[in-house]
Amino acid sequence: MPILQTTDLKKYYGDEPNITKALDGVSLSVEHGEFVAIVGTSGSGKSTLLNMIGGLDVPTSGKVIVDGKDLSTLNDEQLAIFRRRKIGFIFQNYNLVPVLNVYENIALPVELDGDKVDKKFMQEVVRMLALEDKLNNMPNNLSGGQQQRVAIARALISKPAIVLADEPTGNLDSRTSSDVLGLLKVTSQKFHQTLVMITHNSEIAQLADRIVRIEDGKIME
Ligand SMILES: Nc1ncnc2c1ncn2[C@@H]1O[C@H](COP(=O)(O)OP(=O)(O)OP(=O)(O)O)[C@@H](O)[C@H]1O
């Protein structure tokens, strides 16, 4: 069974005649451990799709099933729990908590869930992302690439069903981008982590197992 399945997913904004079909019937299957890049021009519907998969927004029609769960059956509270346990988010702007140090930022999703950090797994993740000597630093003392590595560690630490990354290297120079992306790919592979990433950088998309192209809210074959 795929870890993620969307069926005829639609998201419309506004009403006729000024309707925007941000997603217009997207059916997508992603297998466990797969790395999928979603590419497309600005306004093609990439972020809308990611928001639906991550339970951040509700579709107009169609289904999203993550790890066997149909998201339309969840109420707001259940959706919040679903996001915390099942989805790791990586954003362009890192979204680290400025008053927490690196270790605390990485541990946050697990602790919010009332759970204890798996120390051994933490060590492994931190080592793979070369953050061992940064654990006591505050985010604003780190470079952009280092901050994004912290965000990657935070996304992986709860062993989510899927990691969703929205233009994760959008704020990084090209050399740092390839370093960070390389690390994201290697750590995902090592932990058999499913990864769905938006990018409009075709070089970065080449790193994925599969590229899905979206135009005008539809998947292009
Ligand atoms: N809240 C909203 N209200 C109205 N229209 C919206 C809303 N969110 C997105 N749209 C429209 O839906 C379409 C798809 O937007 P989306 O942000 O998914 O594109 P994108 O491919 O992620 O673009 P970019 O690469 O620029 O981030 C666009 O035409 C956008 O203007």
Automatic annotation (TrEMBL):
It comes from the Bacteria. Residues 4-221 form the ABC transporter domain. Pfam families: ABC_tran. Signal peptide: none annotated. Keywords: ATP-binding, Nucleotide-binding, Transport. PROSITE patterns: ABC_TRANSPORTER_1, ABC_TRANSPORTER_2. Belongs to the ABC transporter superfamily. This is ABC transporter ATP-binding protein.
